[in-house]
């Protein structure tokens, strides 16, 4: 039926691919009448010949029919059905009870051919019993036509209906397989995107912590080499190295950033501002507006990283004389502002990896980052974040 036009796997996962039920029906439809024929009243030669013709249908099926159905080989299938017609018709002319085999033979026509040629083969199969009936009952044409019409009609209707049902099943199975493949592809792409996002996050963490710490250490050691008494700068370099080590351990353990461990956000910002003044001598001040309160860890992490990046840029590029760091707590937002009086730059052409990473971090938690700068006009960076993180599961 639906096997036409497609090779199938008889052991596949779909019930319509299985030939076992049809094979059992064919075996029963041929062996049962053969057994009755052998125990009948015909002469021994006729009984053996008729029963042998019926029993020979099964070897023919396994030699020709099964492979023709599985591979959709129409030519081989035509040979198989021709052999069925020959064996069955010969048996029917010897013993009419062989007609019982039509229950198993008619479905074979629909398994080998599409609906229309299969109906033709059903008619050919019924021709033998019909001729035998007319020979033995020449005056009973009405009964003959009635029975033949019913047999052919129901065989055709059932065969066509089954073919359509199985074709729809094939199409749905193909659609399900396609959906499963697409789901697997979506899962793969999602995993790749997650891995890429994680790599970007780690790159940002390394840039904002370890890379900046190493830069500070290098600058402190260079300053120590230029001083007659390098003890102060070397002490700061050692302290920075230790904090860098802490940052590395926190990064590996996926902990909160080291500047927040055991302290509030405001205390961490005060320490960062004080560190800049100790290392560079730049006058640095911290101010607080609004009522300080605990924030969600992701918000505190973003603000600390933004402050680290901004102060690192001041240290490396601004040549500033004064830096102001402020935190402002509003009813629904918290803002970080870092202002310097250095030489400034053009943000449209000078935004590097650190600023891009900072902007991405702020936007990931629903905030906004504003950078205002001009040559010889100083720089102001403002990050505004929601004080409460939205529920991702809502």
Structure report:
The protein is of the alpha+beta class. Helices cover 66% and strands 9% of the residues. The protein is built from twelve helices and five strands. Strands 1-2-3-5-4 form a five-stranded mixed beta sheet, with helices on one face. The radius of gyration is 44 Å and the shape is rod-shaped. The chain starts with 19 loop residues before the first helix and ends in an 8-residue tail after the last strand. Mean pLDDT is 79; it is low at 1-7.
Quick tags:
9% strand, disordered N terminus, 394 residues, alpha+beta
Report the span from N to C terminus. Answer: 50 Å
What is the overall silhouette? rod-shaped
- Would you list the SSEs in sequence order as H and E? HHHHHHHHHEHEEHHEE
Strands of the largest sheet, in order across it? 1-2-3-5-4
Q: Provide the structure class.
A: alpha+beta
> Which blocks of ≥5 consecutive residues have pLDDT under 50?
1-7
Number of beta-strand segments: 5
| Strand coverage percent | 5-15%
Number of helices: 12
Short description:
The protein has 394 residues and is of the alpha+beta class. The chain has twelve helices and five strands.
